[in-house]
Amino acid sequence: MSAAPLRLVFDPQGEELEAALRCEADVFWETYGNTPEQFEVEYGPYAADTGFMVVLEDNGEAAAMTRFIAPGPAGLKTLNDLSRPPWEVDGLRSARAAGVDVGRTWDIATIAVRRGSGRGGLCAAALYNGIVRAAFANDIDYIVMIMDAGARRLLSAVGLQTQALPGTRTGEYLGSANSTPLWTNLHRIFEQQRQQDPEAYRLIFQGVGLDGVTMPADWTWHRSPAASVPAVPSRSRRTAARGARPRR
């Protein structure tokens, strides 16, 4: 008997967005001890420029999700947070030194994948494919993020080689003991992957092998008013996490 189909939703709204936020909250609580109050402090200022995508089970619950932040008045969180310890550097200057066009950059703020279904790898691949398809559809060429060492190793294992932002190093960040501020040019990273790991390129860039996931027809992102992003569910209102992938 085949597994129930999965569905990736770009720019979820209503119950689909609430499911994405529950998944994010559960995974980050279980993995890093991040609380709803901490999420509000950290991500609330960026709400007006925040987007989501989510992989949904047939029962409407989220198996995986990602939160991204687009350029806006508040800036990109990764670059802003470089002013914190342990880095204490100018994030914009660091990005420009790397050649990043900040106006054509998305900040991948969180990625959360629940364990337990046996399809974590498929869900992660669907999210990565969704990120690149959505980015190119919205004229985004660069990605920045602060990524846990374990998650970075997973990217490297499929031929996605990211670079540390100039002036930064691995350090503690929001409950992760080993996180590094990273950047990449999407065109270059996938051309490198195509040459070094063609099978992974077909899966992640071309989507070959994602037959078990229904993908959106439209990847255009429309900014929503800040008030339309629901609050992160409190611990008393959400189910226990089935597990977590490493932070970002």
Present the secondary structure layout.
Blueprint (H helix, E strand, L loop, with lengths): L5 E5 L3 H19 L3 H8 L6 E7 L5 E8 L7 H5 L9 H7 L7 E9 L6 H18 L4 E7 H9 L5 E2 L6 E3 L2 E10 H11 L1 H7 L8 E2 L34
Helix pairs in contact: 7-8
Offer a quick outline of the entry.
Helix content is 34%, strand content 21%. The chain has 8 helices and 9 strands. Helix 7 (186-196) packs across helix 8.
Outline the structure in words:
The protein is of the alpha+beta class. It has a single domain (6-211), classed as Aminopeptidase, CATH 3.40.630. It is 34% helix and 21% strand. It has helices spanning 14-32, 36-43, 77-81, 91-97, 120-137, 149-157, 186-196, 198-204, and strands at residues 6-10, 50-56, 62-69, 105-113, 142-148, 163-164, 171-173, 176-185, 213-214. Strands 1, 2, 3, 4, 5, 6, 7, 8 and 9 form a nine-stranded mixed β-sheet that branches. Strand 4, helix 5 and strand 5 (142-148) form a beta-alpha-beta unit. The longest helix has 19 residues, at 14-32. The two termini are 32 Å apart.
